[in-house]
């Protein structure tokens, strides 16, 4: 949705389709005008993303709370989640294409690195019922909001949130019997920061209002992919899958980073035709 559609669907508590199909029946009340005026003025004056002003973003049909401590979920990241869901469904029929066929009651262990608002972990918990999910982030404030979102969508019992720097826990888990590294995972998924440091200032000011820590991928934009490639094999089961969101034009460099010990299975394009998601298998 564009910004105007996002504001109007919020005011009328309706879907984008209803906004257009039932437009003649929709009428502004005085309080709606006041809210609309306040949001637009704040958007123009403070150049703040409208999602921060409304306090939420739409992601995979879910309403995800957001604030200035987390990156706003993008449609491109939906492609990442859809790739995990699709691969999981295929694996039940074609184990050679993905995860080995699981027993009926066997849990699918998923690790979400850099969870932010929790949108990826929560969507996966909603759409893959067998998933047991660990979600990490370096930011305490982001984790607090992610927990709130998980509770809002009633999946808090299936997601374990941990403060960590990539794979390194920064504090002890509250759980008596587990640490992040206790068992290997079937899937690791991540939308890491991938913008080169020098390019961040080139973005629209609304983007630079988002947390820099969630955008800055180092000098070449690849620092987090390199760290993941060095450590992920120790946490993935043999034949396990790694799903990564990529920046525009980074696909060839990602192939080079994951040259040894990995098999690039697929590059998925986003809705604009950009190679956005890389599916990588551990040998």
The helix count comes to: 10
What is the strand tally? 10
Mean pLDDT: 85
State the low-pLDDT regions, or none. Answer: 93-105
Order of strands across the main sheet: 6-5-4-3-7-8-10-9
Order of helices and strands: HHHHEEHEHEHEEEHHEHEE
Would you give an account of this structure?
- The termini are far apart.
- Helix 5 packs parallel to helix 6 (119-127).
- Strand 9 (262-269) and strand 10 (275-282) form a beta hairpin.
- The strands form two sheets. Strands 6-5-4-3-7-8-10-9 form an eight-stranded mixed β-sheet, sandwiched between helices. It has a two-stranded antiparallel ribbon with strand order 1-2.
- The longest helix is centred in the first third of the chain and has 17 residues, at 30-46.
- The protein has ten helices and ten strands.
- With 283 residues, it is an alpha/beta fold.
Helices, strands, pairings?
Layout: H1 3-12, H2 16-21, H3 30-46, H4 50-54, E1 56-59, E2 62-65, H5 75-91, E3 108-113, H6 119-127, E4 131-137, H7 140-152, E5 159-165, E6 168-169, E7 185-190, H8 205-208, H9 223-231, E8 236-245, H10 251-257, E9 262-269, E10 275-282
Parallel strand pairs: 3-4, 3-7, 4-5, 7-8
Antiparallel strand pairs: 1-2, 5-6, 8-10, 9-10
Helix pairs in contact: 5-6
């Amino acid at each position: 949705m564009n910004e105007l559609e996002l504001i109007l669907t919020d005011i009328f508590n309706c879907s984008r389709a209803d906004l257009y199909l039932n437009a003649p029946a929709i009428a502004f009340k005085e309080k709606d005008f006041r809210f609309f005026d306040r949001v637009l003025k704040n958007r123009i004056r403070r150049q703040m993303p409208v999602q921060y002003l409304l306090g939420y973003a739409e992601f995979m049909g879910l309403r995800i709370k957001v604030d200035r401590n987390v990156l706003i979920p993008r449609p491109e990241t939906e492609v990442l989640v859809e790739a995990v869901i699709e691969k999981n469904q295929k694996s039940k029929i074609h184990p050679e294409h993905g995860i080995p066929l699981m027993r009926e009651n066997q849990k699918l262990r998923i690790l979400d690195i850099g969870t932010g608002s929790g949108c990826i972990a929560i969507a996966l918990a909603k759409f893959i019922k067998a998933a047991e999910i660990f979600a990490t982030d370096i930011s305490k404030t982001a984790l607090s909001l992610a927990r709130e979102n998980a509770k809002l969508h009633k999946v808090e019992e299936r997601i374990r949130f941990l403060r960590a720097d990539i794979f390194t826990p920064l504090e002890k888990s509250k759980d008596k019997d587990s640490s992040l590294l206790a068992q290997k995972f079937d899937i690791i998924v991540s939308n890491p920061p991938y913008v080169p440091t020098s390019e961040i200032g080139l973005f629209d000011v609304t983007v630079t209002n988002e947390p820099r820590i969630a955008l800055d991928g180092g000098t070449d934009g690849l620092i987090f992919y390199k760290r993941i490639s060095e450590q992920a094999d120790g946490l993935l089961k043999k034949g396990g899958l790694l799903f990564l969101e990529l920046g525009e034009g980074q696909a060839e460099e990602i192939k080079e980073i994951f040259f040894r010990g990995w098999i690039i299975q697929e590059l998925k394009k986003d809705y604009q035709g950009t190679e956005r998601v890389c599916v990588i298998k551990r040998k």
